[in-house]
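Re: iron/sulfur cluster structure - here you go.
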Amino acid sequence: MIELRCSGLPLFVLCPSSHSPDFDLQGDSRPASLGTGVHTDIQRVADGLEALDIEDAERQQLVEYAEQALAEIEPLAVDWENEAAVARLGEGWHLTGHVDKLSRFKHIIVDWKSGWLESDYSAQTKGYALCCAVGSTMVSAIIPWLRRRFYETVQYTEDELVEFHDLLTEKVRLIGKAWNPGPHCTSMYCPRRLECPHRRNRDATALTLLGEPIGEMLTADQVVKLDRAIRVTEKLIEIAKQARKCFVQDNGPVAVDDRRELAIIPVNRTAIDPLRGWQVLVEALGENGLADCVTIGKTKVEKAVKASAGKGKGAAKVREVMKALDVVDALRTKMTEQLKVRTRS
Ligand code: SF4
């Protein structure tokens, strides 16, 4: 019997061979500890107590929105259970989890999310829904995205949950047979990364760049050499690309084989003029729909504000505008990870 956890389903569905029932996912990371802290605080708030860590501004902001959402969610049922243990038995698998908030009578689950909307957690929520579907043809999931300060409601029909049930059965059969490498192959996500043959193959492929003998795992020395080799190779590739393009510009298309040729092809990219198109787009999408299509770069805005402020007043004007944006809660910070060389402390 394969033990599955709802919290592990997003990775499991992506790569069945990552399965490990005992692994504490994202154990020590900041997102994980923040998520745990926020869940504790929400629980306390729901019980009429104060949140614990009022020093942590990020945590405080997330809990603040959870309080607002709770005020709207609580009246939907009278039998709410918090941190409710749920389970489902399938063909060769046993799925368990703890739903943040559950109404067994109304078949509603609430799944607080303290991460970013971009992450695909839908398999986790579907897992909870599958566990709670017994005795109902429909399960409603309320997913409050605490950072974006809104909640979405998803209805899972019986057909969808049967399909998901079958998907899990299929994925369980693929454990040890199917691998899907990607950005999730890290210590933050994959408990099987150290024994994964796919990852070992990738390390071995990387080492061909150095022409070094292939060991079991990459060593720190090899990573430093790889870093240098990658930088040099990237520069060489850039120069080679320019040389290739120049040749075709000077001499015309070059035959690649009997049917194809390397050629310079004009590519049109159409952008929409925001001033002229604004009204049309608001009418077509509504303000919220349009906002989802638009990204306003902070650096670009800072530059524009500086340029319009006049000599010597730029920095103060930028601070003023950023403060005003913060007051209306319009600033969104997204953490990404970059591999960089920095000065050692
Ligand atoms: S390291 Fe990547 S490919 Fe290997 S098991 Fe984990 S998620 Fe799958």
